[in-house]
Amino acid sequence: MASTLILLRHGESEWNLANRFTGWVDVDLSEKGRGEAKRSGASLKEEGIKVDIAFTSVLKRAIRTLWIALDEMDQMWVPVVRAWQLNERHYGDLQGLNKSETAKKFGEDQVKIWRRSFDIPPPPLSLDNPMHPRFERRYAHLDPVVLPATESLKITLDRVMPFWANTVVPHLRVGQTVMIAAHGNSLRALVKHLNKISDQDIIELNIPTGLPRLYKLDDDLNVLEDRYLADEAAVKAAAAAVAAQGKA
């Protein structure tokens, strides 16, 4: 049974604006980000999208993006599942650092590896670092063993995909329309899987903020249609802006 999937990266956050590595730090949307979320909802409404269930992370920039978009669509009543598995990739000891300053210090090539490589994580947080997720109440119900001190995209994929298979896919299998409002790297993990992108090619993939990506999937969840609800020039410009964040 054919189904519809909408992937939406949160709007610009306060730390996107400040060009800082964010990861699991719970920062809010900037004013621009709220506007992006509102426009994404408007474009989904114009497309006639009727959401059956929505998923998001436990970080407010994604949660608020989903709220604003669903409000704009007049669909705030739809069930929402918040899951830590959809959190942004954990950037380890880089969290809070300015990306341009980090590029000046370590070189743009090294920062690109940390930001976009498939299997090379940034330096980890120490276990006693107060920014470690084991000190946060929202993760207190989890075995500390599963809480990361740093992640590569591969490690992020390893936590996203079981959640995808066990919790999201059953809704798609019965033809429902599913919306996921999440983060650059948790969505890169899903796009890598859906579009069968190689470990090498995923390095060049940048997910723009606040632009809904619409998938139509067949009975076996193969991609029938894949497009952003924006013109091609806007998508390219937004993706290029994301890529440029790691420049010195």
Which key features would you list for this structure?
single chain, 248 residues, alpha/beta, Rossmann fold, six-stranded mixed sheet, 6 strands, globular, gluconeogenesis
Please give a structural write-up.
The mean pLDDT is 93. The protein has a six-stranded mixed beta sheet with strand order 3-2-4-1-5-6. The protein has one domain: Rossmann fold, CATH 3.40.50.1240. With 248 residues, it is of the alpha/beta class. The chain has eight helices and six strands, in the order E-H-H-E-H-E-H-H-H-E-H-E-E-H. Helix 3 links the parallel strand 2 (53-56) and strand 3. This is 2,3-bisphosphoglycerate-dependent phosphoglycerate mutase. Pathway: Carbohydrate degradation; glycolysis; pyruvate from D-glyceraldehyde 3-phosphate: step 3/5. Belongs to the phosphoglycerate mutase family. BPG-dependent PGAM subfamily. It comes from Defluviicoccus vanus. It is an enzyme of class 5 (isomerase).
